[in-house]
Amino acid sequence: MFKSAFEIVGRVTSFGARALRDAWFPPFEGEYLLRQFYEIGVSSVLLVVAAGFALGVVMTLHTRSTLVQFGATAAIPAFQSLAFFNEIGPLVTGLLMAGRVGASIGAQLANMRATEQIDAIETLSVNSFKLLVVTRVIACSIMLPLLTAFMDVAGILGGFLSEHLVSHLSWTLYLQRAFSSVALADFVPPTLKTAVFGFLIGTISCFFGYTTNEGSDGVRKAATNSVVISSLAIILADVILVKCIFFFFPDRAI
Amino acid sequence: MSDNGNRGGQHHAAIEFERVDKGFNGRKVLDKVSFSVARGEVLCILGRSGTGKSVTLKLMIGLHKADAGKVLVGGEDMAALNEDGLVKVRRSMGFLFQSAALLDSFSLNQNLAMPLHRLDRTKSPDEIERVVDETLRQVGLEKDGEKMPAALSGGMQKRAGLARALVLKPEILLVDEPSSGLDRITAGEIDDLLVKVKTERHTTMVIVTHDVHGARKIGDKFAVLDQSRLLAFGPPEELDGMQDSRLQQFISEH
């Protein structure tokens, strides 16, 4: 079991390294890449915004019930923004996208393999790896930070709405309190780390879809493995990346 | 028997198999198979399911590599070619898959235009559009270019797959089960299209089929595979005269 787990890790790593290398050489498949930006990024905006808004509301409700005991409700906006920028926005966006995009990529590529569409691309003298894998990995890596920014904004809006309904706090004062203790280092590194999450989602789900060879059962397995392994990889990578951020920005490691 | 096909094809052969072995998971599907296909000739490969007919086609276009022996296309050893070499050889080949294998997220026009955009950079978008329209017209799908593959019947998908295989005007056309899953009338229409390609373009063709009636209409030669070996090779009239009851089961129309 451990041997096969290590073997898969090795194959996924080599697959990702190939995608990373091939991304720098032509042909760049610009038209297909734009299509992936749309399918992976634009189509996910509503999901991410809705989830972020709801999380923002719930977070504020929970925080208020605790802070009210200490008379510190004025700190709610700051807690909200720091929590979203540092961890909730990046991690939840990564996990949501592992579910939505990971399953979609895994199932789509596995289906293309099962129905010989990938073979057909090769017979047309088109590099199927560059067309199908590299474009998706690039699109995931670029769209994840953008979607995280959407989630952060939606979360703060949700937090404001929840707080406004209870305490009638104004939008201006809420924003002022929310950003009073936020530095650029609280937003930029955690948001950029989601490019790594995107790379992991793209690589892992493309790997399980592109390399399957089990017909229709392979589609099911590819979709499941893409979601499960991507989610796990994101959480593990988050531990390492947070450590790295604290190393490079020690004043944020409070 | 397995070396029958080499006779007289050495100098003008489009495709040559020299004692080719191929197996999967320890099971041999081709055992020292040798034959050659002359330029402009149509070879029909007949035999039971699972005897390596489709694998033979995939060896020809480099989707599989032989375990032993040589597969030569236009004199090039397919196993020795790198990625660029494969692209060059494949440019002169078209492949019609059993399931048509159209890219299901692309319209018919986009399916046909894809190889043209990438491989024929001398053509302007208008010229590509004209070539696509012309090719679709040849297979009777001139009004369906905007449709997605899922919106087409099985026969229409086969014709679209044939159009895509022909769009680069290949010297060699490989066809996997053109009549599979089609009623007799539609299968006859596909056969007629292949006869048209043969007479008008003098394209070298290798057709894998179970349909003996269709094979006799199109094929110049038959290759009969049985139990991983080449049971017989030659013009149908010659094979008709052989006193081999097993062979006659494969090539008899009744």
Structure description:
The complex is a heterodimer of chains A (254) and B (254). Chain A has one domain (30-252). In chain A, helix 1 (2-22) packs across helix 8 (184-210), helix 4 (76-114) runs parallel beside helix 8 (184-210) and helix 6 (128-167) crosses helix 8. Helices cover 84% and strands 0% of the residues of chain A. Chain A is built from 9 helices and no strands. By secondary structure, chain A is mostly helical. With 254 residues, chain B is of the alpha/beta class. Chain B folds into 2 domains: 1-92 and 171-254, Rossmann fold; 96-169, no CATH class. The A-B interface holds A 27, 108, 112, 115-117, 119-127 and B 58, 61, 63, 83, 86-87, 90-91, 93-95, 97-99, 101-105, 114-115, 118-119, 164, 168.
SSE layout:
The complex is a heterodimer of chains A (254) and B (254).
Chain A lengths: L1 H21 L7 H12 L3 H23 L8 H39 L2 H7 L4 H40 L3 H10 L3 H27 L4 H34 L6
Helix pairs in contact in A: 1-8, 2-6, 3-4, 3-6, 4-6, 4-7, 4-8, 4-9, 6-8, 8-9
Chain B lengths: L12 E12 L2 E12 L3 E6 L5 H8 L7 E6 L2 E2 L5 H8 L2 E4 L11 H12 L5 H14 L15 H13 L5 E5 L7 H18 L2 E5 L3 H7 L2 E6 L2 E6 L1 H5 L4 H7 L3
Parallel strand pairs in B: 3-8, 3-9, 6-7, 7-8
Antiparallel strand pairs in B: 1-2, 1-4, 4-5, 9-10
What's the total count of β strands of chain B? Answer: 10
Beta-strand share of residues of chain A = under 5%
Q: How many distinct domains of chain A?
A: 1
> Major sheet of chain A: size, sense and barrel closure?
none
* Shape call of chain B: globular
Question: What's the CATH first level of the largest domain in chain B?
Answer: Alpha Beta
Most residues in contact: chain pair: A-B, 15 and 25 residues
Number of strands of chain A: 0
Alpha plus pi helix count of chain A: 9
User: Whole-number average pLDDT of chain B?
Assistant: 91
Strand order of the largest sheet of chain B: 6-7-8-3-9-10
